[in-house]
Here is the input.
Amino acid sequence: MAKTSKKTDKTTPDAAIEPLEEQIDIAMEHLKKTRAEISKVIYGQTDVISLSLTSILADGHALLIGVPGLAKTLLVDTLGTVLGLSAKRVQCTPDLMPADIIGTEVLEESKSGARSFKFIEGPVFGNLLMADEINRASPRTQSALLQAMQERRVSVGGKEYDLPKPFHVLATQNPIEQEGTYPLPEAQLDRFLLQIDVQYPEWDAERLMLLNTTGKERQKAKSVMTENELLGLQSLVKEMPVGEALVDNILKLVRSLRPGPDADPAINQFILWAPGPRAAQALIQTAKAYALLDGRLSPSMDDIKTLALPVLKHRMALTPFARSEKITLNDLIEQLI
Here is the structure.
């Protein structure tokens, strides 16, 4: 973990810096213990763990994409344990209904014979909801999560029910299976703060995993944080300063990806739809959270370079011509950075 940096936004009063430095020092201790506990169960995948923690610290949701067997489900379960969150899991299938996620009203009869409706909460009423293979759920069921992810509440029977705080959705998706799947609509993809690509582990990590998971005993992660402590870290992220020059660079990057009369010819030729204002908001949120993970007072342009792909690529689509020319979103975004 890097040492706390003294470099801060010039507009921040010196009186406000000292308490912030102390808070970040405390946060670093919490996050160091968090990483240590997660590493007992998840071998390798350092970037995936960092991005998952970044998403939660930034008070957002994440979409984890990877082939089966890469510990995506185990990672979400471990995050719930270590962060002291109540984790719920939904296995998405084509016959899954919205009520299976949100909950439903049932008719109850009292001893006196009076009847009334009672709301039975679904798995969405937890701190951490894992939607496993979310693209296997029907569009109707996928849309049931939209209000929950954006407004942190659900509507059932004309009534609104607030979700617990904190609330995060970590969804998984298998990129190689297309049969029986429903692509996520653009509106829902935009609700995910990050798209995290889960790759195969490195040699040493996979070897360690084989040795430690095929014996009699297995390591188990322990809770090192409470809900209130996590809420405190999320509040700290929001207080962290961001330099105006960095904000301008973020805005310039996001706007440069949008087709239009003043856009680069390659953008007009290759981009079908581009990121909106929520993408710029996500870059600022995640950059601050990523800086906190590294023990710094404010984010830098290096953080934006690291986070640009996870934040932007699921908010964009290529034209058929781009695909025929074997142009990728990674190439376009990296060129503009």
